[in-house]
Design brief:
By secondary structure, the protein is of the alpha/beta class. Helix content is 38%, strand content 15%. It binds (2R)-2,3-dihydroxypropanoic acid.
């Protein structure tokens, strides 16, 4: 009998087909809750879980007592309660690296769109308001030759830096737990041990740090006050890293010039979120990795992690080594 695997939310077709060859795959759409009788029943005897956007915590794991692996279709795994997953003896995996360039493209696109006010000016043209020479108050600001501060110089942060350095002649500052000598050498980047030093000197501040208890509200009133009044803030990490109320205030009072946001404290964000009412905010609906090709590749990598685990092999992107060590 084939082992059962439960798929939740955006697990792409090629990955579903691959999993179906070996497993009894049960697919559930985004929004399915533990109160759904079929979902609950399938989780009872599932040995694998693949998905994104669902919190995998003690309650979920108690509904799935036979799980060997929870495979996230995402590099960020702030939706995983790692302590609970490890306590239940379940392997956890994510999808690093294959999305680096795609996320960097999206975040750099957001930065340019915010600086050059592209969404606002798109509306201006489409609304028929372009009836005379463009008024000065519609002008954006330059990106090239400015200073970009990257908070969180992991793999994606570094690829953003590469675009900024080689494509836009920008000076790069970075703040990270550890120094990155290769980034300093290749991108001529300057390490800022103190976050404040980066905030004070940057024209663009790009937040790319993972969401952890330590990075919760890393950017709040004090940090926005440290930024230049002409600076632009970009969030490509997770919503929890930013105090949204403090950001809205900083944008309204002119503490900073503008913000580009791909992520929100609550997702999907409410249409009533005050940030959405501001002209100096450009948003995207958490699309960092959302291209056809990269979403397929992430789902396929997540499927490979499930397959390896259920065939008794170490999944390539294992996050909790101790569970594997306990088994081997
Ligand atoms: C991830 O995979 O964690 C990214 O947020 C995708 O956009």
């Amino acid at each position: 009998m084939k082992k059962k695997v439960v798929a939740y939310s955006r697990v792409r077709k090629p990955a579903q087909e691959k999993l179906t060859e070996k497993f009894d795959l049960r697919v559930y759409p985004y929004g399915t809750e533990l109160t759904d009788e079929n979902f609950k029943k399938d989780l009872q005897d599932a040995e694998g879980y693949i998905g994104l956007e669902k919190n995998i915590d003690d309650e979920f794991l108690r509904h799935a007592p036979n799980l060997k692996i929870v495979s996230n279709v995402s590099v960020g795994y702030d939706n995983f309660d790692m302590e609970a997953i490890t306590k239940h003896g379940v392997m956890a995996t994510n999808t690093p690296d294959i999305l680096n360039d795609t996320v960097a493209d999206a975040i750099f696109g957001l930065l340019i769109a915010t600086a050059r006010r592209i969404p606002e000016l798109d509306r201006y043209v489409k609304n028929g308001e372009w009836t005379e020479s463009l008024p000065d108050e519609k002008f954006g600001i330059d990106v090239h030759h400015k200073t970009l501060g990257i908070i969180g110089a992991g793999r994606i942060g570094q690829v953003i830096g590469k675009r900024a350095h080689f494509g836009f002649d920008m000076d790069i500052l970075y703040h990270n737990r550890s120094r990155k000598p290769e980034m300093e050498e290749k991108l001529n980047a300057t390490y800022c041990e103190q976050l404040d030093d980066l905030l004070e000197a940057s024209d663009y501040v790009c937040l790319m740090t993972p969401s952890t208890p330590e990075t919760r509200h890393l950017m709040s009133s004090d940090q926005f006050k440290k930024m230049k009044k002409t600076a632009i803030f970009i969030n490509g990490s997770r919503g929890a890293t930013v105090d949204e109320a403090a950001l809205a205030e900083a944008l309204q009072t002119g503490e900073i010039l503008a913000a580009g946001l791909d992520v929100f404290e609550e997702e999907p964000t409410s249409p009533d979120n005050p940030l959405l009412k501001l002209d100096n905010v450009v948003t995207t609906p958490h699309i960092g990795s959302s291209t056809d090709e990269t979403e397929d590749n992430m789902s396929l990598l997540a499927a490979d992690n499930v397959t390896a685990a259920l065939e008794g092999k170490r999944p390539p992107n294992l996050l909790n080594e101790e569970v594997w060590e306990g088994k081997s």
